[in-house]
TrEMBL record:
<keyword id="KW-1133">Transmembrane helix</keyword>
<keyword id="KW-0472">Membrane</keyword>
<protein>
    <submittedName>
        <fullName>Probable membrane protein Cj0124c</fullName>
    </submittedName>
</protein>
<feature type="transmembrane region" description="Helical">
    <location>
        <begin position="39"/>
        <end position="63"/>
    </location>
</feature>
<keyword id="KW-0812">Transmembrane</keyword>
């Protein structure tokens, strides 16, 4: 029975009791409390307990009804927060939400520790927000670009980073836009834009922003490879610029040897040797790559001068190379290195 029906029927019952009680000629009934005497009709003393019972019952119903309302409201909030958390996890983010019930809290803790990957093309849900997120995710995974205004994600979000890479593939000019403000984007997006720009834009349009970009060894090798492919030998980096680029990047001797081989096509021997000599002066760990370039140009005396002052366990390959030459066996350094 609904509470409204209960109240209406109870009131009808109270009126019926009061009507019957007051229709009787039952006189008065007095109660003395200390010095006070209360005189009321007998019918009133019949009705008052029923009225008090009615009021107590209504209070009881409202109390437990309100308690149930708070319980239901808590469950609703838990469900809403679980949906919010699911949406966050779908886009690769996490969120802090409070849960009222232990069960919802446990589910929330589990969801916070798992990654979602939607693979079913028949994915279905009645939640419009999740449906929209699904559409965005499938579009991005299909190498399509979704407007950043629709996604509303941080630029370092994995989904947003992939979305930006998709745009780079679609719009060559966007890679240049990223290079104009590299501090705004995640480093892997900047690297992707940098590599794409080197392949699809003019090298001169990339060189403008070099000083503002944090290069890694892969980016440096690709950049110098493109620079050394300049057949007419115009506008290639000078030695001082190359030194500055290398100084800011964590490179190995193997990386430098690759770079040296590329520049050997467009630099004079004197320029290339000077470059690697300056590199070894800047950092002794680059002596190995300098020795390699010296051996390529058969600068034997210069090699001996360096090796004679080295430790016994240093530059073993180059010492072996000289020993073989002294024995009349002429090998190229690339066959030994």
């Amino acid at each position: 029975m609904g509470i409204k029906k209960y109240i209406i029927l109870s009131i009808i019952l109270l009126i019926s009791i009061a009507g019957y009680a007051f229709s009787l000629e039952s006189g008065d009934y007095r109660i003395q409390i200390l010095d006070q005497v209360i005189i009321l009709p007998t019918a009133f003393w019949i009705v008052i307990p029923a009225l008090l019972l009615f009021v107590a019952t209504i209070m009881h119903l409202f109390y437990y009804g309100f308690k149930q309302y708070l319980f239901n409201r808590g469950n609703q909030k838990d469900n809403e927060n679980l949906i919010r958390l699911i949406k966050k996890r779908l886009i690769g983010e996490n969120g802090t939400y409070s849960f009222r019930s232990p069960e919802a809290k446990e589910i929330g803790d589990i969801l916070s520790q798992v990654d979602f990957d939607i693979k079913d093309i028949n994915f279905n849900t009645t939640n419009s927000d999740i449906e929209k997120i699904y559409e965005y995710i499938t579009s991005i995974k299909s190498n399509k670009y979704v407007s950043s205004k629709k996604l509303k994600l941080a630029l370092d979000n994995p989904l947003m980073k992939q979305n930006l890479k998709n745009r780079i593939e679609i719009d060559d000019n966007f890679s240049i836009d990223i290079l104009k403000q590299p501090g705004t984007y995640a480093q892997d997006v900047v690297k992707y834009a940098f590599m794409h720009a080197l392949q699809n834009n003019s090298l001169s349009s990339v060189k403008i922003f070099i000083k503002d970009i944090n290069l890694d060894s892969d980016m440096l090798k690709t950049l110098t490879e493109q620079d050394s492919n300049n057949e007419d030998n115009k506008d290639i980096f000078d030695n001082s610029t190359i030194l500055e680029l290398i100084k800011s990047v964590d490179v190995s001797n193997d990386d430098l040897i690759v770079i040296g081989k590329k520049y050997a096509k467009v630099m004079t021997p004197e320029q290339l040797l000077k470059l690697f000599e300056d590199l070894s002066t800047m950092n002794e760990k680059f002596l190995e790559s300098y020795l390699y370039i010296l051996s390529e140009y058969q600068m034997i005396d210069e090699m001996r001068e360096i090796l004679v002052n080295s430790q016994e366990d240093e530059f073993i390959i180059f010492k072996a190379y000289l020993d073989l030459r002294d024995a009349g066996k002429h090998y190229s350094i690339s066959s030994l290195y």
